[in-house]
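Recall the central idea of this unit: under ordinary conditions, the amino acid sequence of a chain determines the structure it adopts. In this exercise we apply that idea directly, starting from the sequence alone.
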Amino acid sequence: MTTIDTTTTDPTTTSGAPRGASDRSDLKRNGVIDSDVHPNFVNGIRDLMPYMTETWRTRLGISGADWAKGMAAAQFTLPLDYLYINPAGAYREDAARPGMPPATDPEFVAKQLLDPHRIYRSVLLSGQCLGIGAMPDGMVAATIASAYNEWMCERWLQVDERFRGAIVVAPQDPEAAVAEIDRMADRDGVVAVFPLGQILMGEKHYWPIYEACARHELPIVTHPSGTENVFAKAPQMAGTPTFYLEWHTALGQIHQSNTLSMICHGVFEKFPNLTHVIAEGGFLWALEVMWKLDRDWKGLRNEVPWLTKPPSEYLLGNVRFTTQPFIEPHDPRHLAPLMEMLHADRVLMYSSDYPHWDFDNPDRALQGLSPELRRAIQVDTPRAVYGDRLD
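Accordingly, the structure predicted from this sequence is:
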């Protein structure tokens, strides 16, 4: 974990943003791309009221009295992490503007995160709609997803050109998800799609969503939701943890299962230009997955005859991982061989996870890597994944 510097360090302007054409050109070529920043609501789901019809506001109970927010069956509540609480706090106190929750003011986020670290683009992954797949009603999920996407575009993407966004879709309803992708794909600033639900991601339930993403050249992004094993329709871990320490350490379980599922079901054979970005789900587990999957495939390929090459090649070609929280081995000499075995120059993408407690400062988190590898992780690989949508 590294500390956020709230002062502006870039002297080009008082705000820290580059002012001249040469500065902008240099930032475009060399600026960091952050693949995981969480925008938050000020008033919870009520922030989405302007983007819903009155019928839906009434159905969700969000247009009534303020006291309804804390009452059972009185107002719909977004599925969030209510049971696994970090005793030290899940958010950085210095990421909160006075009188507001962390990461609720895009101008403050730009000044605190983007300006001092010369971040060229920052990909927004919803802070409070990550658990959308846990909702039992697919129509409710689709309505909230559409409202969130409009909110993100208006309140964030239109405020600072450096923000880019992953739209949320309802994985419970592939038809509605495809319609939402088609509706939002050409919006300025949209660079990815977030579809995670309970069903393992190789199942054909998701394939219409993948077809739409591939057609629009949009990667899919998955991220821990905080609802794992708490809600019946949430992604399921291998057993229900008791402590935050257990839950936080085990976040890679679901992503490992989903990666195996997508490869073995032939998702990347069917959609060869589809990229799956795993955010905050760890990445070293991919080493064992590649080794063991390739070994077993040699004797079991008749079970999955649609796979035309070793499974590790699908992972290396179609799966990408964000770095936060980056590994810090006790012996720094161990880092380089791990990165080489992982093909880190191909599969890793920098992420800060702002505004959470374990934020990774782009100036410090990757210091143990060579300049060439740092550039690949912070610039080249995310550029290859998000393409021209970044510019």
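The chain is about 35% helix and 10% strand.
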